[in-house]
Specification:
The chain has 163 residues and is an all-alpha fold. The protein has a domain at 24-59 and 66-115 and 127-148. Helices cover 53% and strands 0% of the residues. The chain is built from four helices and no strands. The chain has helices at residues 21-50, 73-87, 92-113, 129-148. Helix 1 (21-50) runs antiparallel to helix 3 (92-113). 17% of the residues are buried. The mean pLDDT is 79.
Length: 163
């Protein structure tokens, strides 16, 4: 009897020889582009938060203003007002998180390009532990602000600790 060929689960990727040089190059370019996007968003978010003004028409208030003072325009005024309403001064932690992700990506890129030294490898990291740590830091900072910085946050949409 003739044998039937086994069904193939192979994807379109060349399994035998590994990924092609073009695939590797495109993957690294997408990683680098992601860092540039994170850096641009962090700079824009920092600018928008720094130029927030309570007189601008935004998410938490309806004010008729002829001139919008926020450097991000109407969209920037809405984004900054929303973030300051939810998180208070802790909204700046989002900028810090984006800058940290850019720094980690740059470190990985330069670490891959440098000659490898015989050093101990650190323990493997769990991908979600940074997210949990950031969430706990954000909650702790919001609570601390709400308790300690009431006078400073009087002009913010929902106070120093957010809503």
């Amino acid at each position: 009897m003739a044998r039937l060929p086994a069904p193939s689960n192979r994807s379109s990727k060349n399994v035998r020889n590994g990924p092609s040089p073009l695939q590797l190059r495109l993957t690294s370019l997408v990683r680098e582009a992601r860092w540039f996007v994170f850096a641009a968003v962090a700079a824009w978010l920092g600018l928008v938060l720094a130029t927030w003004n309570s007189a601008d028409p935004a998410w938490s208030q309806s004010v008729h203003a002829g001139v919008i003072r926020n450097r991000g325009g109407t969209f920037g005024a809405n984004v900054s007002d929303f973030l300051l309403f939810l998180f208070g001064f802790s909204a700046w932690l989002w900028v810090v998180l984006l800058v940290q992700r850019v720094a980690v990506g740059f470190y990985r890129l330069t670490h891959l390009m440098l000659p490898k030294a015989k050093a101990e490898e650190p323990l493997p990291r769990v991908r979600w532990e940074i997210g949990i740590g950031f969430f706990l830091l954000l909650l702790g900072c919001m609570g601390f602000e709400a308790l300690q910085f009431r006078e400073w946050g009087q002009n913010l949409p929902a106070g120093a600790g957010g809503s």
